[in-house]
């Protein structure tokens, strides 16, 4: 296990304070529910894309005067990063080590597809410096996988997990989706039980979301839903699915440390915790979004088209689609909304003081949440109960 990460004083959660996110946009096919910046490609421009990542890294480090800064988490997401040549991943990680102070025990995660060909590369990723795998299993059930457009089956996913173990990974996460068209409560429970039987250190379980307000782009499954070709389970059924997942995971010793994330003690995602606790992150690659604090806090997002991203970098320009300075109110609202996703909660009074917001005007709402059993006070932090987690967005909106 990696050395302990810094403790965020507002949430009490161990979290990276400065991390790097690298996005690899290429997939063999695009899943019908996926709104991430990804593109289906049978031929991947591996060397060209790697060169662009290294060029963007060089430019951003210089522009933001980040060279030499300590980094405590690196996350390679996608897309399907397990299609990226291990030699190229090694080259990117080496560049990061040469330009930044990569902390001892730095969490280095790579998202992986549980296909057989991807699993064959796991040992090479481990040798390159990756020490944590996050596998997009989504389900072991054939019907659910078919609806989600996934090419693997349950047996292949299980074999990929075992391949990760043989490759030397002692920190493996798996992602699952529930609330899918045609999916039953029994199938969700079966997925959860098969997941814990494998012995993963970290599991994520997300309810399928297809409403336009939550998507970065309209996806095929959302269009099918709008046309009435598919339907999602009723809200009360989705809540029961979530509770079954929670109970199965808890019985196996995985703690619910965030609304959708569960981990064995000491194995929560330090990189994701960086997002939830307001840390800084340098982002590289197609569609990547970063949050840095130079003279003022700002967020930037890169071009979502891989080809546009490549052309911009190769022309010596910033590959950004947008950049915005963040006001104190925006930072406050993010800190509250993200902090309340955590089981440890957030010190609301301290967050108000930090960003110049009035706590007294929110005290009545806090008392109502406590009396209604929607929240608890834990070590001075306001923490939502399981009932509060079910309506997190509404609670966060009231407090903001």
In the CATH hierarchy, what is the superfamily of the largest domain? Aldolase class I
Instruction: Give the count of helical stretches.
Output: 16
**Assembly type of the shown chains?**
single chain
Beta fraction of the residues? 15-25%
Shape: globular
CATH domain class of the largest domain: Alpha Beta
- Taking Cα atoms only, what radius of gyration do you get, to the nearest Å? 21 Å
Indicate how many domains the architecture comprises: 2
What is the first-to-last residue Cα distance? 37 Å
Fraction in helix = 40-55%
Biggest sheet overview: 9 strands, mixed
> Which runs of at least 5 residues are low in confidence (pLDDT < 50)?
none
- Using the coordinates shown, work out and report the CATH topology of the largest domain: TIM Barrel
What does this protein structure show overall?
With 400 residues, the chain is of the alpha/beta class. It has 2 domains: 18-276, Alpha-Beta Barrel (TIM Barrel), CATH 3.20.20; 328-399, Arc Repressor Mutant, subunit A (Orthogonal Bundle). It is 40% helix and 22% strand. It has helices spanning 46-63, 86-99, 116-119, 122-128, 142-147, 154-166, 185-198, 220-226, 235-251, 270-276, 306-314, 328-339, 348-354, 360-371, 386-390, 392-399; strands spanning 18-24, 26-27, 39-40, 70-78, 101-112, 132-138, 172-178, 202-207, 255-258, 261-263, 280-284, 289-293, 297-302, 320-325, 375-378, 381-384. It has a 9-stranded mixed β-sheet with strand order 9-10-8-7-6-5-4-1-11, sandwiched between helices. The chain has a 3-stranded antiparallel β-sheet with strand order 12-13-14, with no helix packed on it. α1 packs parallel to α2 and α7 runs parallel beside α9. The chain is globular, with a radius of gyration of 21 Å.
């Amino acid at each position: 296990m990696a050395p302990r990460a810094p403790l965020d004083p507002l949430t009490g959660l161990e979290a990276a304070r400065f991390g790097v996110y690298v996005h690899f946009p290429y997939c063999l096919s695009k899943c019908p529910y996926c709104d991430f910046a990804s593109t289906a490609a049978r031929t991947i421009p591996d060397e060209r894309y790697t060169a662009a990542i290294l060029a963007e890294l060089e430019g951003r480090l210089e522009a933001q005067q980040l060279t030499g800064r300590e980094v405590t988490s690196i996350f390679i997401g996608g897309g399907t990063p397990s299609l990226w040549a291990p030699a190229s991943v090694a080259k990117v990680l080496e560049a990061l080590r040469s330009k930044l102070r990569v902390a001892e025990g730095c969490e280095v995660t790579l998202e992986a597809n549980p296909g057989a060909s991807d699993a064959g590369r796991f040992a090479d990723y481990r040798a390159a410096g990756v020490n944590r795998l996050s596998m997009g299993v989504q389900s072991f059930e054939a019907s659910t996988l078919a609806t989600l457009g996934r090419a693997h089956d349950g047996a292949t996913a299980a074999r990929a997990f075992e391949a990760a173990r043989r490759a030397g990974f002692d920190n493996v996460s798996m992602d699952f989706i529930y609330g899918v068209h045609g999916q039953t409560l029994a199938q969700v429970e079966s997925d959860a039980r098969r997941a814990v039987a494998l012995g993963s250190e970290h599991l994520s379980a997300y309810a399928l979301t297809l409403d336009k307000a939550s998507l970065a782009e309209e996806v095929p499954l959302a269009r099918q839903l709008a046309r009435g070709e598919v339907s999602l389970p009723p809200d009360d059924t989705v809540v029961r699915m979530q509770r079954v997942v929670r109970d199965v995971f808890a019985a196996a010793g995985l703690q619910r440390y965030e609304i959708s994330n569960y981990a064995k003690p000491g194995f929560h995602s330090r990189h994701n915790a960086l997002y939830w606790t307001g840390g800084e992150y340098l982002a590289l690659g197609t569609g990547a979004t970063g949050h840095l604090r130079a003279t003022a806090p700002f967020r930037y997002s890169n071009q979502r088209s891989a080809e546009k991203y490549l052309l911009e970098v190769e022309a010596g320009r910033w590959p950004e689609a947008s950049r915005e300075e963040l006001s104190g109110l925006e930072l406050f609202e993010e800190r509250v909304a993200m902090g309340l996703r955590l089981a440890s909660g957030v010190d609301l009074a301290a967050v108000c003081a930090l960003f110049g917001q009035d706590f007294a005007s929110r005290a009545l709402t806090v008392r109502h949440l406590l009396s209604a059993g929607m929240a608890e006070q834990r070590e001075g932090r306001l923490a939502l109960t399981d009932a509060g987690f079910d309506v997190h967005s509404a609670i966060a909106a009231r407090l903001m």
